[in-house]
Amino acid sequence: MSLHLDHVTVRYGATTVLDEVSLTVPDGEIVGLVGESGSGKSTLAKAVVGLAPVHSGSIVLDGQPLRHRGRRRPIQMVFQDPFSSLDPRMTIGESIAEAIPERLSRADRRAEIARLLELVHLDAGRADQLPRQLSGGQRQRVALARALAGRPRLVIADEVTSALDVSVQGAVLNLIREMQRELGLSMLFISHNLAVVRYVASQVAVLEGGRIVEHGATTDVLERPQHDYTRQLLAAVPGGHPIPNKEIRA
Questions:
Q1: Could you tell me the residue range of the domain that residue 19 belongs to?
Q2: Which pTM was predicted?
Q3: Closest by Cα among 190, 177, 172, 175 to 135
């Protein structure tokens, strides 16, 4: 399902955080959004899910205005810190079950939880565990399973690997690519890490000071940047640029 932002502006008082941002996430594709801290990336994500006030412009999903009310929401968000996004008092199964929109029998609900855990490569037995009993990478997989439980038409992933050890980042990225291929997910993937964005995204938009300064096919933007800000981001990548496009190992 395609998402389209048309000249979206977000203001807090006299401060403009997003300034007439236009961006499209095509059906079945992953679009990367990159920029430094404070560039407005998370504000854009919050505007899409209804957590930030849109001063002007429009946000539509498949040509229809987004509705944020109701139990079943067409867009789900996965946050940076998987521990804070899960209730520490609820088991993994309870957290996932809370996001399942339909009223199912206990047996059907447990079967759906098991299916979702297996989808993110976790054993169904994890359903009875608490978040503190899981590693950071496992908790992020649970957060993905919880987002998918709502059967969204689009997922927003906001810095989902930045809080993880480097040793487990690759496994989560491989999982995201696998889910996109198998489920045909549309995703807005937000990150400050250009190597990560290149690995998962077919398109990338560069956000500076609340404005998109460059947008195009990921390979074109990262190998032949046209804007000075994009060049600065690339220059800050360890090892310089261009960023190698190679398989990230789990």
A1: 1-74+152-250
A2: 0.88
A3: 172
- Mark whether 160 and 94 lie in a shared domain: no
The overall average pLDDT reported for the chain is 88
End of a domain among 151, 169, 203?
151
Q: Is 81 inside any structural domain? A: no
Structural domain total, the chain: 2
Give the list of residues 6+ apart from residue 59 with CB closer than 8 angstroms, or none. Answer: 3, 4, 5, 6, 8, 47, 48, 65, 66
Helices vs. strands in the chain: H and E counts, helices first: 8, 10
For CA atoms 6, 10, 16, 18, give the dihedral sign.
negative
Coil, strand or helix: which one is 212? strand
Q: In whole angstroms, give the CA distance from residue 184 to residue 140.
A: 20
Rounded Cα gap, residues 31 and 24, in angstroms: 8
Q: Which residues of the chain have pLDDT under 70?
A: 68-72, 239-250
Tens of pLDDT, residues 104-163: 888 999 999 999 999 999 999 999 999 999 988 899 999 999 999 988 889 999 998 887
Could you tell me the CA-to-CA distances from 36 to 60, 139, 159, 160, 205 in Å, in that order?
Answer: 26, 25, 12, 15, 12
Return the number of other C-beta atoms located less than 10 Å from residue 12's C-beta: 11
Give the whole-angstrom CA distance, residue 226 versus residue 192.
18
Residue 79 is assigned to a structural domain of this protein = no
pLDDT tens for 51-65 read: 999 999 999 998 888
Of 120, 151, 182, the residue at which a domain comes to its end is 151
